[in-house]
């Protein structure tokens, strides 16, 4: 509940008065700032802008506008641009007036020359007047400085050159267009092929979905069984360890010993074959040499040469 005593309201009132005084001070500072800005604008830009607006509007009244930094700055920039444009236009007007005066003087001179030799526009025939008009129109169309043969021929040559360039540009554009059309056709064909391939893949995927799902279930079942068997193996190994079974009875040990036994049997077989070859000999060394010599002679008689010493045919 808020305090109800008069003494308890004093701190709140003081804080409220302090905040109010701060807000009033800020508002006064902002007002002073904008007043100074407006004063400066009126001093530096105001008179010039106002005079320009009076000049532009003439007898009409100047529309009312808000005087602030943004508005005055925009009007100042617009005034500068307008003055610059008016100066350029005045230069163009002066140049056109000078050219008009020159053309008028030239026309007067040519008229005097024609009158001195007894020629005038009225003395020409209809065909002559038509030819003269055609010549003038041609000079105007070709933008020549005069109607002399040289100027007209140069203008016509330039026109032919421009036409030739345009035809080359047109042929180049047609070539590029044909290439683009060919590429577009190829792209359409590839797009159709890709769509057919994608459709075939979708059909295959739909057909293989049951088989894939079946294999996925089998794989999950096998994983579960493998996990179960691994768990059972670990339990059985723990039981074997706890029961004190000799490690020599393990499958891995028996398998290793079986391999070692098979290796020993192979070695024993080779040794036994060698021993059998020695057992067929007589116990006496001289008799053994005689028997070896008989065997050698028998081989020589069979193969035609000594297989041991490489002798020739007998």
UniProtKB/TrEMBL annotation:
Main location: cytoplasm
Keywords: Cell cycle, Cell division, Coiled coil, Cytoplasm, Cytoskeleton, Microtubule, Mitosis
Listed transmembrane segments: none
Keyword Cell division appears in the UniProt entry: yes
Coiled-coil residue spans: 219-281
Gene Ontology BP annotations: cell division; centrosome cycle; spindle assembly
Keyword ATP-binding in record: no
Cell compartment(s), UniProt: Cytoplasm, Cytoskeleton, Spindle
Cellular-component GO terms for this entry: cytosol; HAUS complex; microtubule; spindle
Family membership: Belongs to the HAUS1 family.
Name of the protein described by the UniProt record: HAUS augmin-like complex subunit 1
Organism the protein comes from: Paralvinella palmiformis
Source taxonomy: Eukaryota, Metazoa, Spiralia, Lophotrochozoa, Annelida
């Amino acid at each position: 509940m808020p305090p109800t005593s008069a003494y308890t309201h004093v701190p709140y009132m003081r804080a409220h008065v302090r905040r109010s005084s701060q807000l009033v001070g800020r508002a006064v500072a902002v007002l002073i700032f904008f007043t100074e800005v407006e004063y400066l604008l009126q001093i530096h830009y105001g008179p010039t802008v106002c005079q320009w607006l009076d000049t532009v509007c003439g007898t009409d009244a100047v529309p009312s506008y808000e005087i602030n930094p943004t508005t005055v700055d925009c009007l100042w920039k617009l005034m500068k641009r307008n003055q610059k444009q008016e100066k350029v236009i005045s230069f163009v007007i002066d140049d056109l007036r000078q050219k008009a005066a020159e053309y008028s003087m030239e026309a007067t001179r040519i008229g005097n020359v024609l009158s001195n030799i007894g020629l005038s526009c009225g003395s020409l025939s209809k065909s002559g007047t038509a030819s003269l008009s055609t010549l003038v129109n041609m000079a105007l169309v070709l933008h020549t400085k005069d109607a002399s043969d040289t100027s007209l021929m140069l203008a016509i040559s330039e026109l032919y050159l421009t036409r030739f360039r345009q035809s080359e540009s047109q042929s180049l554009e047609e070539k590029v267009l044909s290439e683009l059309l060919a590429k577009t056709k190829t792209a359409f064909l590839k797009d159709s092929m890709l769509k057919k391939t994608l459709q075939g893949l979708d059909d295959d995927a739909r057909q293989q979905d049951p088989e894939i799902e079946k294999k996925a279930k089998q794989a999950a079942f096998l994983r579960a069984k493998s996990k179960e068997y691994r768990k059972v193996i670990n339990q059985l190994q723990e039981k074997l360890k706890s029961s004190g079974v000799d490690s020599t009875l393990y499958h891995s040990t028996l398998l290793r010993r079986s391999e070692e036994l098979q290796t020993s049997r192979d070695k024993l077989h080779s040794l036994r074959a060698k021993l059998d070859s020695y057992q067929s000999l007589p116990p006496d060394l001289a008799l053994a040499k005689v028997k070896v010599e008989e065997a050698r002679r028998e081989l020589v008689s069979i193969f035609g040469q000594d297989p041991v010493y490489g002798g020739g045919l007998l």
